[in-house]
Amino acid sequence: MTHPTDIRGEHLHTALSLAASGVPVLPLRAGKVPFGNCRRCADNACGGRPNMKTPGPCACPGPCHAWAAATTDPHVITSGPWRRAWLRAGAVAYHPGGAGLTVVDLDNVDAIAWARENLPATQTVPTTRGEHWLYLGPMQSANRVRPGVDIKSTMAYTRWLGFGSGTMAHLPDAVRALLVQKPTAPRSAPQPLTVPTLSGGGECRHRAPAYLERGIAMAEQRITEATSGVHNAVYGTFLAVLSTHGRCGCLTDAHIARLFTAAQAKGESARHCTDAWNNARTKLGL
To answer: 144 — phi, psi (to 5°)?
Structure first.
């Protein structure tokens, strides 16, 4: 019988092996979610890294900031805060873009069939519900580029599920073109999106525009990757965004629309989005 401690030790061993190969890694909790930020970084109060185009921890010693915490430094990976995280970890994740890779995440048999007809063969890794197709070369990440297909590369993380099989091909134009085409899954037409206004005007305390952009991108990802309790995930995400950005003038209608669009893509109605947003504002006294 495999003891949980052995499994967690195996996660650390896997992480160190990947890091030695130049793949930035981070621990995941049960449920495929990153560990929460430490007290210093709660609600991204630390401002995160000054340059979020590359992975790596901020000034705090823990595995904060999801994909941005991914690192190849063995001293960081085995440090006290990280080691404590590994003892509770449910899986190993990596930052594909930081390793110069793109993962085409195929979520079901129909998506796999589409890929076999339209994409060049490459290294393939089986997942719980589908396959990961790995290509050499990074690109912008995006969810739901077509039914059952996500792209995980820069500013994203994905679980490490092994090496799979096949020879990795270079990133084809057919994958890059998905960001331009980006068809939506067949479903009922979304309700008209009415974005609530948000009066700010306070002094913006954020260090750089990249901080806000990263926060919105992480919020979209949190909503998109919710597998259960979508209502609570949407409300919690709205609350987190507003607690950080709701009192200054940097949060625009376009940012709010991105959050509402992500929520509607998960099946939330326009009314539920508005209610969750207003409830979050009320809780924070905005």
So the answer is: 55, 50
Q: What is the pLDDT of residues 188-230, one digit of tens each?
A: 444 555 555 554 544 555 555 667 777 788 888 888 877 667 7
Q: Which amino acid is at 38?
A: C
CA distance 256 to 270: 13
Q: Are 28 and 91 in contact (CB under 8 A)?
A: yes
- In sequence order, the 6+-apart residues with CB closer than 8 A to the CB of 167 are 122, 123
Contact between residue 65 and residue 37 where contact means Cβ atoms under 8 Å apart:
yes
Whole-prediction pTM value?
A: 0.64
Question: Cα 152 vs. chain centroid, distance in angstroms?
Answer: 8
Residue-wise pLDDT for 144-164, tens only, equals 899 999 999 988 899 999 999
* Among 110, 97, 190, 180, CA closest to 149: 110
227/282 Cα distance (integer angstroms) = 27
Q: Which segments of 38-175 are extended strands (E)? A: 91-94, 101-106, 123-126, 131-136, 142-146, 149-152, 158-159, 169-170
